[in-house]
Amino acid sequence: ARQLVWFRSDLRTLDNSALAAAASRGPVIAVFLHCPAQWQAHGHGANKVDFLRRGVAALGDTLAGYNIPLLQRDIGDFSATAETLLAIAREHDVAALHFNREYPLNEARRDAAVQAAFHAAGLASHAWTDAVAFEPGELLTGQGHYYSVFTPFAKAWQRQVDAGRLALRDAPSVQAALPIAAEALPDAPRLADTPVDARHWPAGETAAADRLARFLRYRARHYHEQRDLPAIAGTSELSPYLALGMLSHRQCLQAAMAENDGHLGDGDAGLTGWVNELIWREFYQHIVVGFPEVCRHRPFQRHTEALAWRDDDAAFRAWCEGRTGYPLVDAAMRQLVQTGWMHNRLRMVTAMFLTKHLLIDWRRGEAFFLRHLIDGEFAANNGGWQWAASTGTDAAPYFRLFNPTTQSRRFDPDGRFLAAYLPELAELPAKARHAPPRDALGAADYPPPIVDHKAARERALAAFKALPRS
Ligand code: FAD
């Protein structure tokens, strides 16, 4: 009997739990529902939407090689999901629906509504665990709670993970052609921004696999030494692919293990360090299920709800535009806007600068990041922002504030990253780029620091100390 596979953030044919399960039961029809109004309501911008559309096109081509037709509908927002899928199921005489679970609240509610509608219609539907090794709720503390601190979560993950959880799912085989035509990509939604150059981020699972192989060959063994240096391409730059499932975490982990004598948690320091980041990814996926209030714009730490964030539009704009007068912050923000991606070290530096030095609400920064990031992903972005703002799980203690100038000297010692994104500072001697003296700037149009580090630090500490303790 025919099986319907509904693709969402799992845009690949290899190692796909839902597709593998469906293909083992009968001929497969695939569907992707475009929801541009929902993506917009969730704050995603042109970079992510463009990458997603290119990913769906690539998926359609790959599926065609298996004779699996990909149907596509533009349904606006999530509200018409169940009726659309049911209509497709009935039209094509489908016996069961298959999809891989997504964890943020709106997605989980949509999926529950779909399953209820299929049940009511007497049709089977199957939700598969795919994006994580452990279903949220499976890894709990001794007291039966969700972990809210990363390190014990990671230890439990390492201890309990087994070969079955990480085994690659079967690839589908070429099926007999169905009398159903594949459908074209709907028209692109009209968005305020223009996406970044697609050539740097080729979409699809083949491009993702190439990038993974290159990372493992050239960078992975140096990852622990180079991952914090933004002037070096020392990280995998796989985040957009993982966010949309053009690559799976299992494919990453299996490839890392193959390079590391079958080990995950010990052996090569670069490879194990990288595996640890993939566990961070899973940690935040569990958080959005265990603490769903984070999906409602609420801080993880309730008492920080009362924090007196400053309404300072001019300062917010300066941060967005990379004109704070702190070169590392400014170079990073320009990297984000120009390329749609930002180095992890700099995500931490810029997020802390906005929330601590400028004392501006983390939710404004979270939204600005999502609008520009090609890898924008709710759980990781929210987790990262709340970490930096000291409102989240495992958060940086509020009194630990990065000094952006010290961070700059430490992680971009030659000022190479600064020069790449701040051409107005490129003529200065490298050492002077971190905190350019006014008289050295000449005619260069670069602003003085928007706040004094020490005074801003005191202001942030005072604001946090004023919070009632819960
Ligand atoms: P690598 O260092 O090669 O890591 C491999 C993979 O592990 C990444 O691709 C990613 O999937 C995962 N990963 C790495 N670090 C983290 C982390 N701290 N949390 C969760 N997953 C992680 N990541 C996103 O994928 N989407 C986001 O929207 C996002 N927003 C962030 C916002 C802030 C304020 C901060 C501090 C971090 C954010 N991150 C986000 C996490 C991290 O910065 C990026 O995943 C990483 O920079 C991507 O580069 P990479 O693929 O080269 O990572």
SSE topology:
Layout: E1 2-7, H1 17-23, E2 28-34, H2 36-41, H3 46-65, E3 70-74, H4 81-91, E4 94-100, H5 105-120, E5 124-128, H6 150-160, H7 163-166, H8 205-219, H9 223-226, H10 239-243, H11 249-259, H12 269-290, H13 313-321, H14 327-339, H15 344-357, H16 362-372, H17 378-388, H18 404-411, H19 416-421, H20 453-465
Parallel strand pairs: 1-2, 1-4, 2-3, 4-5
Flavin-adenine dinucleotide (FAD) binds next to helix 10, helix 12, helix 15 and helix 17.
Structure description:
With 470 residues, the chain is of the alpha/beta class. The protein folds into three domains: 2-130, Rossmann fold, CATH 3.40.50.620; 131-167 and 205-290, Serine Threonine Protein Phosphatase 5, Tetratricopeptide repeat, CATH 1.25.40; 302-464, DNA Cyclobutane Dipyrimidine Photolyase, subunit A, domain 3, CATH 1.10.579.10. 46% of the residues lie in helices and 6% in strands. The chain is built from 20 helices and five strands. It has helices at residues 17-23, 36-41, 46-65, 81-91, 105-120, 150-160, 163-166, 205-219, 223-226, 239-243, 249-259, 269-290, 313-321, 327-339, 344-357, 362-372, 378-388, 404-411, 416-421, 453-465; strands spanning 2-7, 28-34, 70-74, 94-100, 124-128. Strands 3-2-1-4-5 form a five-stranded parallel beta sheet, with helices on both faces. Strand 4, helix 5 and strand 5 form a beta-alpha-beta unit. Helix 16 runs antiparallel to helix 17 (378-388). The termini are far apart. Flavin-adenine dinucleotide (FAD) is lined by residues 227, 235-239, 242-243, 277-278, 280-281, 284, 344, 347-348, 351, 369, 373, 375-377, 380-381, 383-385, 388.
